[in-house]
Write a structure and sequence with these properties.
- By secondary structure, the protein is α+β, with helices and mostly antiparallel strands.
- The strands form 7 sheets. The protein has a 7-stranded mixed sheet with strand order 17-18-16-15-21-22-23. Strands 3-2-1-5-14-13 form a 6-stranded mixed sheet, sandwiched between helices.
- A hairpin with a 3-residue loop joins strand 1 and strand 2.
- Helix 10 packs across helix 14.
- The N terminus is likely disordered.
């Protein structure tokens, strides 16, 4: 269903999805169809254990190259806006001119694990979760600020701003420094009820608000400035640049699951389970987070570090892939707790490590691979159950992401959840979310809630197999029992510096 609210607008909207391992550029027509898509990869470096660093200049260069390819496939005058979405939990220290002083930290960076432990009691005592809805963890900025102050004091003294990768890129291309509410809500520094930087948390960290960008809504629009970006991409100066927001919340919008009681389960390399509400979501037990989408819509959820990377690790280790085995509910196999890169929701144990429980001499490749698929699905269920407890049982569940859309991945997740699910066919839900927010920013739709259901494609439905669902209920109980009995041992194991 096309949007024709402004006849003078050009036909096409360009979106940039700044991901963890790559940037993706899409061209949308007014019907929401992707006419063009291209991707550029960039690496993450780990110079020390727990470090996950990226070169922001390399990311910027790859974005320009991808946009140039899109512009060359159309004409610059075809585009009415440039919209963005971004990976969450990135941190970049810059000087007063915006020059990076240190590599970008992404969500995989766990260097501040000790700071998390040192800060935990005060964080709970002061009730900061009740402001930020962010459990204390290495992905958020409070422990990162403490780490830099403690370990790199000279660098911190030179730092004028702490920004995200999208803040920095938009600063470069528009000359305006601002962080949208959506991206800011995933820093651990935002007071969600006031939708402003939390003065209490900043005072606790001895962090001046001047160290952070001013805030703006995701629908914020600033014209593209003339400079290296416009010259290198071929885009016309003055093109409206829409600030956009976080890739996770925007994926709910892109999937058409942004109303209350609608859930999206996304499992790619990592994963998340997200459900929308028209007010901030706080978990009394502080297990989940809440991020802003746009237009008064909030997203409660939880994330897993270990999604498709578990399968990729197993495949590379064993030299075979998913095509080399078939799922068999009766197969003898171990139970896999797949904490290869620590745990986020629901228990936020950065030092959690993987466990293969019940491993036998008679287990083979298929046994291990099936255990890997099931272990990821159990991680998804742990967050699904948490959200049902906090926000109520969802009326819709949409599966998305590369892992969740595979034949084996979607089957195992569906059976482990024990409920009907829709399987998305969208190639880039986050980018589609950026497209829809751009439409609102351009005035073609007044409210996101007014976008009709007919605008979103119907998804095929997958039903759980009753026998499988019953068995997985039992295996899931054992999964949690193994976790509970070993959780206190993770810290002792990590202290030995073996993982």
């Amino acid at each position: 269903m096309p949007f024709r609210g402004c006849k003078k607008l050009a036909e096409l909207i360009l979106t940039v999805d700044i991901g963890t391992s790559s940037c993706k550029v899409c061209v949308f027509n007014r019907e929401g169809e992707i006419l063009f898509s291209t991707k550029r990869n960039y690496p993450t470096f780990s110079p020390q254990p727990g470090f996950a660093e990226q070169n922001p200049i390399e990311i910027y260069k790859n974005i320009k190259q991808a946009i140039r390819e899109a512009v060359d496939s159309f004409s610059a005058s075809s585009f009415s806006a440039l919209g963005f979405d971004t990976m969450l939990h990135s941190s970049l220290l810059v000087d007063g001119e915006g020059n990076p002083l240190y590599p970008l930290l992404n969500w995989m960076d766990t260097r501040s694990a000790q700071e998390v432990e040192d800060m935990r009691n005060e964080y709970r005592q002061y009730g900061f979760y009740k402001q930020s809805a962010a459990p204390l963890h290495t992905i958020f900025n409070p422990p990162r600020v403490r780490w830099f102050k403690k370990n790199m004091p000279e660098l911190w003294r030179k730092t004028q701003k702490m920004v995200t990768i999208k803040d920095w890129i938009l600063w470069n291309i528009t000359g305006v420094l601002s962080c949208d509410f959506s991206t800011a809500s995933a820093t651990g520094l935002l007071d969600l009820r006031k939708v402003s930087w939390s003065k209490d948390i900043l005072n606790w960290l001895q962090l001046s608000e001047d160290h952070l960008p001013p805030l703006c809504p995701p629908e914020n629009v600033v014209p593209l400035k003339e400079g290296d970006f416009s010259a290198d991409t071929g885009l016309m100066p003055g093109l409206p640049v829409v600030w956009g927001g976080g890739d996770g919340p925007f994926a709910n919008l892109g999937e058409g699951a942004f109303r209350e009681k609608e859930m999206v389960v996304t499992v790619g390399s990592s994963g998340a389970v997200r459900m929308c509400q028209l007010a901030p979501v706080f978990d009394p037990q502080e297990r989940g987070w809440c991020y802003y989408l746009a237009d008064g819509i909030w997203v409660g959820g939880g994330a897993i570090n270990n999604g498709g990377i578990v399968y990729s690790w197993m495949r590379d280790l064993l030299g075979k892939g998913a095509e080399d085995f078939e799922l068999d509910i009766h197969r003898e196999r171990p139970l896999f707790l797949p904490f290869l890169t620590g745990e986020r929701s629901p228990n936020w144990k950065a030092n959690a490590r993987g466990i293969l429980f019940g491993l036998s001499y008679f287990h083979d490749f298929a046994s291990l691979m099936q255990a890997a698929f099931e272990g990821v699905a159990f991680r998804v269920r742990s967050i699904y159950d948490m959200l049902c407890e906090i926000m109520g049982r969802p009326e819709r569940v949409v599966l998305s992401g590369g892992f969740a859309q595979t034949e084996k991945g979607k089957r195992v997740i569906c059976d482990v959840l024990g409920r009907k699910v829709e399987v998305s066919n969208l190639p880039s839900a986050s980018a589609r979310g950026a497209f829809l927010v751009s439409l609102k920013a351009l005035g073609e739709v007044k409210r996101l809630m007014e976008i009709p259901d007919a605008f979103f494609p119907r998804n095929p439905v997958l039903e759980p197999i009753a026998e499988h669902a019953l068995f997985y209920d039992q295996l899931y109980e054992l999964y949690w029992e193994v976790y509970r009995r070993n959780v206190d041992l993770f810290e002792r194991f990590v202290a030995l510096k073996l993982a």
